[in-house]
Amino acid sequence: MATSFDFSGQHVCVTGASRGIGLAVAQAFAAAGAHVWVVAEDTSVVQAANEMTAATGARVQGLRCDVADQSAVQQAFEGIGTLDVLINNAGIELPTPVEESHSAIDDAFRRIMEVNVMGTWWVTRAAVPLMNSGGRILITSSIWGRTAVPGFAAYVASKHALIGLVRTLSQELGPRSIRVNAICPGWVRTEASLRSLAVMAQKRGISEEALTEEIAAGQSLEGLMEPADVAGLYLYLASESAANITGQAIPIDRGEVMA
């Protein structure tokens, strides 16, 4: 885990932080000395916060909140007070094949858009008034926000939408010196991505191991990343070292997609 950056005295909020990338990013900011709020819908977020406090000595607070619920988001952020860095990471990744007629596909499509897009919007709307000049907003998109794959229309569309949101917000908030960027991870070993990998392998009639090997072969650097492998990019973009970077969608994908 990258800990060379110092965020002592800074206030950071990470959504979708009970597991996966969000948890790794929150741990990295806590290790770097930040006061961290971790937000997630499931109850394990409070335990995650307590464990981070014990491991790092930083002040970490857990907030249970469904980011797709505007009133719940507003209520949760009322207790934060001030904010230097917002990490919009909460999201859902599920298959939504257009030719499958089951109504559950439409329900999944709607929920993905509500959480990934509207949830990011509600959280940002609640956080921006808490930010002073020099604030930073980072949004987790995906390498699929720059490309596409069959069978995941809602997820891909939502991640493309987030990049558009980043570009617009960077222009709107630039006069306040608030920087806004997207991070586009490639294949990371998370519960969600491994579930998607299994679906894709089954659709093609090959083993998950064979598909993993195929993915690795298509990268300049082989192998899937772990959540902690991407945390350093969040720290960098939130630091003064990235003071001139805004409105960008930056991939971290072991060379899977060349910008």
UniProtKB/TrEMBL annotation:
GO terms for biological process: monocarboxylic acid metabolic process. It comes from the Bacteria. SUPFAM superfamilies: NAD(P)-binding Rossmann-fold domains (SSF51735). Pfam families: adh_short_C2. Gene3D superfamilies: NAD(P)-binding Rossmann-like Domain. PROSITE patterns: ADH_SHORT. Belongs to the short-chain dehydrogenases/reductases (SDR) family. This is 3-hydroxybutyrate dehydrogenase. It comes from Aidingimonas halophila. The lineage of its organism: Bacteria, Pseudomonadati, Pseudomonadota, Gammaproteobacteria, Oceanospirillales.
